[in-house]
Every structure is written in structure tokens, then in C-alpha cells.
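Input C-alpha cells:
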């Protein structure tokens, strides 16, 4: 993936809807973790419901943006995909700094990637404190059960110890729990805590959610996760 060179705006700043005059709130989500844990695959599965077996390391920082519809509310998510390679580490703190959500991903088949979670969470807390960011810990590749080196219980305990609000295991290859992850994240955002919030209701756009992977790519389409029926009991908890 290529390095992103421009951004739309500061995270959390309201964007004026052209037709309604109401605000469409935007939230910056930064993905962190060691190289090869599946950060890019997690974003790709969520945005386009696809998976690529051919691994390509993210170079620097990549940026994507998408509108998400849930519970009659619509928000704009800015997804920042960071490189796990050591040579790009100096870039990452500046992208953490104004993030609303930090998702730290590890590979359940690689114990070392799990052990590095502490460092990533420390980086987030150094830049954002503990009250200004929603911390999520995600154990990816849970379809590889025969190669598992980190148990669900270990992941849950780590999440609680580090103060993460959300812990979940996912499989980007199988598409397991990915929508549930973003659903939990969305419901942790201010719009879903405040019933009187001023949000654009794009029901017509959500009805055409199949257009999320349309010809205009990131600029059009609404991801509708309001009717998701994935099983949340396996590998997920509200920590």
C-alpha cells in the first residue's frame, strides 16, 4: 500500500452535510501492531468484504475513509493503517495523537506479536492519555486454530490489565467478527451514548450498502452494519 500524503481534517471535527445542514461526525481510528498481524486485511475485509492471500507490507501510513450506518445514525470513519516495520515507528506517534480509537492487533499464532501489545498501548497512552481514546485489542487469524499460541483467555486478561474497552478475536480470511468489532467500536462513540446527537440519517444510502465497494471507492457508499448477525459469543468481550 502507498503512503498517504494528505488527510481530510482533524479527527472528531464536525462536517457540514451539503443537503441537510446537519453534522456528520468524523472519527479517526488508528490501527497498530507488529508486521504481518493483519491490520490491512482487517480494514479491507470491513470496507470491501474481500481478503487477499498475497501479503504485502504496508509502507509508511495508509489512509481510507468510509461512512458507516448503524441504528439510524451515520458517522464517518477515518481509518489509518500503520506499518509494523521498525523503520517506520518514528512516524506513528503523530498519527496516534489525534485519534479517537486505537485498535492494537496481534496474531494469535505468534506469541511475540501478543507480547508487543504492551508497547503499542504504552505509545497510545503517552500520546492520548487514558481518557481520550477508546482502546481495542484484537486477536486476528482465529481460523488458524491448530497454530494457536495465544488463548482467548490470555487475550481477555491482557485487555483488562491494559485498560482496553474492547477485546475481540477475528478472522479476516473467514470474515469472522469483523463487522461486530466495528459495531462495538461505533457504539462506544459519543453519538451512540447521546440520543439527542445531531447526525445525518442516510437511510437511503444504507439501503444500497452493496455499493460500499462501488466504482467511486472510498468516496461513496455506506457500510450498513445494523443487521449483522455474527455470533459475538466466541472470542469477544466488552472488557
Amino acid at each position: 500500500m502507498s503512503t498517504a500524503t494528505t488527510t481530510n481534517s482533524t479527527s472528531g471535527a464536525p462536517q457540514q452535510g451539503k443537503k441537510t445542514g446537519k453534522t456528520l461526525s468524523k472519527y479517526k481510528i488508528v490501527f497498530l501492531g507488529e508486521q504481518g498481524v493483519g491490520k490491512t486485511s482487517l480494514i479491507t475485509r470491513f470496507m470491501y468484504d474481500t481478503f487477499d492471500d498475497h501479503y504485502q507490507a504496508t509502507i509508511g501510513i495508509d489512509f481510507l475513509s468510509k461512512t458507516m450506518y448503524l441504528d439510524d445514525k451515520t458517522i464517518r470513519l477515518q481509518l489509518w493503517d500503520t506499518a509494523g516495520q521498525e523503520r517506520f515507528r518514528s512516524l506513528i506517534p503523530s498519527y496516534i495523537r489525534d485519534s479517537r480509537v486505537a485498535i492494537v492487533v496481534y496474531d494469535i499464532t505468534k506469541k511475540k506479536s501478543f507480547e508487543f501489545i504492551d508497547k503499542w498501548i504504552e505509545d497510545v497512552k503517552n500520546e492520548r492519555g487514558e481518557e481520550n481514546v477508546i482502546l481495542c485489542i484484537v486477536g486476528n487469524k482465529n481460523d488458524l486454530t491448530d497454530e494457536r499460541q495465544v488463548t482467548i483467555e490470555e487475550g481477555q486478561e491482557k485487555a483488562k490489565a491494559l485498560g482496553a474497552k474492547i477485546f475481540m478475536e477475528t478472522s479476516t480470511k473467514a470474515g469472522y467478527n469483523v463487522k461486530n468489532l466495528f459495531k462495538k467500536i461505533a457504539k462506544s462513540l459519543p453519538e451512540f451514548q447521546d440520543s439527542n446527537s445531531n447526525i445525518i440519517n442516510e437511510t437511503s444510502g444504507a439501503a444500497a450498502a452493496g455499493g460500499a465497494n462501488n466504482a467511486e471507492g472510498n468516496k461513496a457508499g455506506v457500510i450498513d452494519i445494523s443487521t449483522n448477525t455474527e455470533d459475538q459469543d466466541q472470542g469477544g468481550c466488552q472488557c
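The helical segments are 39-48, 92-96, 111-115, 117-128, 152-162, 178-187, 203-207. The chain has seven helices and nine strands.
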